[in-house]
Specification:
By secondary structure, the chain is α+β, with helices and mostly antiparallel strands. It is built from four helices and 20 strands. A 16-stranded antiparallel β-barrel has the order 3-6-7-8-9-10-11-12-13-14-15-16-17-18-19-20. Strands 4-5 form a two-stranded antiparallel ribbon. The N terminus is likely disordered.
Length: 527
């Protein structure tokens, strides 16, 4: 490539010199020549036009070489000789090379085609004006594409206005503990997530790294998370992934974030029952068309805000999900029929999670993603003296099962999840012999409709937790507006009503112990 560039540069210089000398000889302006005639002037003008056309052609050839060299440099950024030559060529050849703009939204690589008013040509024919790159929903923009790997950058963020001022000011638990509620009203750039993903050395070997902040939790543990995972696809039915991931114990932690009806917010039933994010190893894959699985072994139920010194020295946390999509073999992205299925899409899935937890491995109550072992009134079982004077739970076993279903057709979607088992048992610690196992169950149900395809969506839903220490529930309704007819930008407005919420922390709109109405509106960017 470098040798070709040097040879081409030499040819261009020789051609230019030859054309310049020919112009002097034919102009009749050399030593001893008389004044030029009209025919001489016309011949000179014709010759200049020909020379200009030839130089323009050579310039286009040079731009091809420059583009090719720059593509080579992208794959060999440590070649000083190539860098110096490219810099010299660019310095001697003025052009518009380097004007870049993103490609249109597409799931495959696409080059935008724009007109050139000055030349009447199409920019797609001119490498100096090509737009490059590709966009894949939720995988972002491809910024590197080489034989050794690629890199996509994706960003998720949203701003939120929240009003909880109509909540009741206090909450009394089943054990008589009174909690004062903070009736918040604030604006937040609530979350920023930057994702870097792609493959390296082998397309089967992929990486997914991210930085994740919860700005409503400023000053608390896990306010900023740097995490990720790598994976290798041995076969379509066996993909091995070590790293930090969500335990697939309910539908919302299968990996479908952020494609939910509400912006970054679950119903309280899902929030109460689900496991969270932890470090571990996951196996996943497609067993046949429409039948997928995930199974994971992890350190604990939630590692965010928990140091390695707090973790037990055994692996007794695992979660498994089996998903069947019988009619179409797929179910779209997340909740709601944004895709506008023309054939009925169906889904049926089962999940099971088991974990032996101790008080040290639990995140603090205000932590971001603070999944804890709770009773149905929200009380944390590791609270000293909760079950009586001198009784302190040191370890407990968590078992949880869920079954979810979904139907999507022509922009309508009905989706629900049933939690038949949430059991806390096998307590150890001073005085725990008198503490009986606790079992809860519950459900959630959501309905949505695209009022205008790919533009306007309405939804409502609710959930309930049913247990020995209370029966909390919630209801919500909202409207999503997609101004660019895709899921990259979304405006969301939602009203929800809580009754004795057993969950809540700063990064979600619902408050722990809350009873009453809440309003919030969000502007989301997810590309």
């Amino acid at each position: 490539m470098l040798r070709s560039a040097v040879i081409l540069l030499a040819i261009v210089c020789c051609c230019s010199c030859f054309a310049h000398g020919q112009s002097i000889d034919s102009s009749g302006s050399g030593p001893g020549a008389g004044p030029p005639t009209a025919d001489d002037v016309l011949k000179k003008l014709d010759l200049l036009v020909q020379q200009n056309q030839q130089l323009e052609k050579q310039n286009h050839e040079l731009m091809d070489v420059i583009s090719s060299m720059r593509r080579s440099l992208a794959g060999d950024s440590h070649n000083p000789q190539a860098e110096a030559l490219a810099a010299a060529v660019a310095k001697e050849t003025p052009s518009d090379e380097g004007r870049l703009s993103p490609s249109p939204i597409s799931s495959t690589t696409a080059t935008m085609k724009t007109g050139n008013a000055a030349t009447g040509q199409d920019d797609q024919e001119d490498p100096a004006h090509k737009r490059w790159g590709s966009y894949t929903p939720n995988a972002g923009f491809k910024v590197v594409n080489t034989e050794h790997g690629d890199l996509n950058i994706s960003i998720f963020t949203y701003g939120r206005y929240l009003n909880q001022r109509a909540l009741e000011p206090t909450y009394t638990s089943a054990f008589g503990t009174v909690t004062n509620l903070q009736q918040r009203q604030d604006f937040q750039l609530l979350k920023v997530q930057m994702k870097f993903l792609g493959w390296v050395m082998d397309p089967k070997f992929r990486y997914f790294l991210y930085a994740w902040s919860s700005n409503a939790s400023q000053g608390l543990g896990a306010q900023v998370v740097l995490a990720g995972n790598v994976s290798y696809a041995f076969k379509p039915y066996f993909i091995l992934t070590p790293g930090i991931m969500s335990l697939p114990g309910t539908r919302s932690v299968e990996g479908n974030f952020p494609f939910w009806l509400s912006v970054d917010s679950r119903l309280i039933g899902d929030e109460f029952f689900r496991p969270s994010y932890t470090a571990g190893v996951r196996a996943s894959g497609t067993l046949r068309k429409g039948l997928t699985y995930q199974t994971m072994i992890g350190d604990n139920l939630s590692i965010l805000g928990v140091s390695a010194a707090q973790l037990p020295n055994y692996f007794q946390t695992n979660a498994t999900a089996l998903v069947w999509m019988p009619t179409t073999g797929e179910f779209g992205a997340g909740w709601g029929d944004f895709e506008n299925h023309q054939k009925l899409a169906t889904r049926l899935a089962g999940h099971f999670t088991y974990s032996k937890e101790n008080t040290q491995s639990q995140p603090n109550v205000d932590e971001f993603e603070n999944t804890q072992l709770r009773l149905s009134d929200g009380s944390i079982i590791f609270t000293p003296g909760l079950f009586g004077p001198g009784i302190v739970v040191k370890t407990a076993v968590y078992k949880m099962a869920s079954v979810d279903f979904g139907l999507k057709y022509h922009g309508l979607a009905l989706e629900g999840e049933y939690y038949p088992l949430h059991r806390l048992s096998n307590f150890t610690g001073p005085g725990t012999s008198v503490v009986r196992p606790n079992t809860d169950w519950g459900y959630q149900l959501q309905f949505s409709a695209m009022l205008k395809p790919k533009t306007l969506q309405a939804y409502f839903g609710g959930s309930e937790v049913i247990g020995d220490y209370g029966r909390p529930w919630d209801f919500r309704t909202g409207l999503n507006f997609f101004p660019f007819h895709n899921r990259v930008v979304r405006s969301n407005t939602e009203f929800l009503y809580l009754y004795r919420s057993p969950v809540g922390y700063p990064s979600v709109p619902f408050a722990f112990g809350g009873t009453g109405p809440i309003f919030h509106t969000n502007l989301e960017l997810a590309f």
